[in-house]
């Protein structure tokens, strides 16, 4: 029986910051939108507050609340221009926190952006490696009940990021994925396509923290940025001008010696008055991404550098997988895009590994020489949406359709079918 329907599967990677959506088989997502919903509060409040007797008005207000909402950039601009719209960010730190807003978000993704009938397409969605089975059940319920999809696969984002290498000649399904997005950062070891769950490490520092740190540095230097715009300016400054340096002290010196070469200028318009303003961008260019390598400059709550977290993650994995894991450290997520991020990670991690080898050889009085450990941090051009791309590749294989939960299975067994996730056996 040929299970593969003629229409391509829909692939949606909902991130804490941005949603990447499109169709399987494509190289790029059709849309990358902020994961935010703006709901018209006046209709919502009306439908809540009207008395039961006035059911028609209550019903109408409810219907209007269901229709009058926006997502993505449209939501942001609506909330700026009108105070009746309230913003809701349905995903926090990689987990869905507001299911009502999430359902609205998917509704617009499907009907207004991708413009497809969900009954005609299989769906591939993504989840964080720490998502609970209950949350996966909710997703299944919404997809099968509200959207009536014929089939659904919920892929673990790190595994999908590894699969992004599938189209290149050597697809390794063993490796460590370092996924640093907007609201979550995970280091996930994968062996033969299976996540080594007990060795997953989470880091409480991600893209949003870099933005907050850049915002703070600019504010402390007394830069002339209007407060209501300062977070957005900091985000843009971060994405356009930040880079990873090899040594902070040297970098300070470089900036001081040749300011003209390193200082950038930002020009903007004050949202309230429309007056133009400008400001300088200095040390924050390299201090922003430095919080991954020297987190104590950002705060005292978490002080383990990212390369140490990666090393700990690999050291806690089964001993026979460690060499292959060090050999294939794959970057994924927008916050790994800083210039030279992979070089710094590779250098710092190699230092940690080499020091351990030297120490263990010294302990054995040099009687046994160990094989050098190959450390390889892989950087690739589609890092920004590696998870989505991996989903697009997997969802265009025939195996995908056999790995999906189907509507018929859902109707027979209920949402509990979504608790487990079959891996594509054929692929690995
Ligand atoms: N060129 C760039 N340089 C640095 N950071 C960038 C760049 N482009 C995007 N970012 C940052 O990457 C983050 C978004 O990345 P991504 O889309 O992977 O996150 P997400 O999937 O929404 O979040 P998460 O995976 O944490 O739930 C944002 O913080 C954004 O500012
Ligand atoms: Mg993500």
UniProtKB/TrEMBL annotation:
The keyword Protein biosynthesis does not apply. CDD domains: ASKHA_NBD_Arp3-like (cd10221). One of its GO terms (cellular component) is cytoskeleton. One of its GO terms (molecular function) is actin binding. It is found in: Cytoplasm, Cytoskeleton. Its main location: cytoplasm. Keywords: Actin-binding, ATP-binding, Cytoplasm, Cytoskeleton, Nucleotide-binding. Gene3D superfamilies: 3.30.420.40, Actin, Chain A, domain 4. InterPro entries: Actin, ATPase_NBD. One of its GO terms (biological process) is actin cortical patch organization. Belongs to the actin family. ARP3 subfamily. This is Actin-related protein 3.
């Amino acid at each position: 029986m040929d299970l593969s329907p003629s229409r391509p599967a829909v692939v949606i990677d909902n991130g804490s910051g941005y949603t990447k959506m499109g169709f399987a088989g494509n190289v790029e997502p059709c849309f990358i939108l902020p994961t935010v919903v703006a709901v018209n509060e006046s209709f919502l409040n009306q439908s809540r507050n009207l008395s039961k007797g006035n059911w028609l008005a209550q019903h109408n207000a409810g219907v209007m609340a269901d229709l009058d909402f926006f997502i993505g950039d449209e939501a942001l601009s609506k909330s700026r221009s009108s105070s009746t719209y309230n913003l809701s960010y349905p995903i926090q730190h990689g987990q869905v926190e507001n299911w009502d807003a999430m359902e609205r978000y998917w509704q617009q993704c499907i009907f207004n952006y991708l413009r497809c009938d969900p009954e005609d397409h299989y769906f591939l969605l993504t989840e964080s490696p720490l998502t609970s089975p209950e949350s996966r059940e909710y997703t299944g319920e919404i997809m099968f009940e509200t959207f009536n999809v014929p089939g659904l696969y919920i892929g673990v984002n790190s595994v999908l990021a590894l699969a992004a290498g599938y189209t290149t000649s050597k697809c390794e399904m063993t490796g460590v994925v370092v996924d640093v997005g907007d609201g979550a950062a995970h280091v996930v070891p994968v062996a033969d396509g299976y996540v080594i769950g007990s060795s997953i490490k989470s880091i409480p520092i991600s893209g949003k923290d870099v933005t907050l740190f850049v915002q703070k540095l600019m504010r402390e230097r007394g830069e002339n940025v209007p407060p209501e715009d300062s977070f957005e300016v900091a985000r843009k400054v971060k994405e356009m001008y930040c880079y990873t340096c090899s040594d902070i002290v040297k970098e300070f010196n470089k900036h001081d010696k040749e300011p003209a070469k390193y200082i950038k200028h930002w020009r903007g318009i004050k949202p309230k008055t429309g007056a133009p303003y400008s400001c300088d961008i200095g040390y924050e260019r390299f201090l922003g991404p430095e919080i991954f390598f020297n987190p104590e400059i950002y705060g005292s709550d978490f002080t383990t550098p990212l390369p140490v977290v990666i090393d700990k993650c690999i050291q806690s994995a089964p001993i026979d997988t460690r060499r292959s894991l060090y050999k294939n450290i794959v970057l994924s997520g927008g916050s790994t895009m800083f210039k030279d991020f992979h070089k710094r990670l590779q250098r710092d991690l190699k230092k940690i590994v080499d020091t351990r080898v030297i120490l263990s050889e010294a302990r054995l009085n040099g009687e046994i020489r160990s094989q050098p450990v190959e450390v390889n941090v892989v950087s690739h051009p589609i890092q920004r949406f590696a998870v989505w791309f991996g989903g697009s590749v997997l969802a265009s294989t025939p195996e995908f359709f056999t790995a999906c939960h189907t509507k018929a299975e859902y109707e027979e067994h209920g949402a509990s079918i979504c608790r487990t996730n079959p891996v594509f056996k054929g692929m690995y």
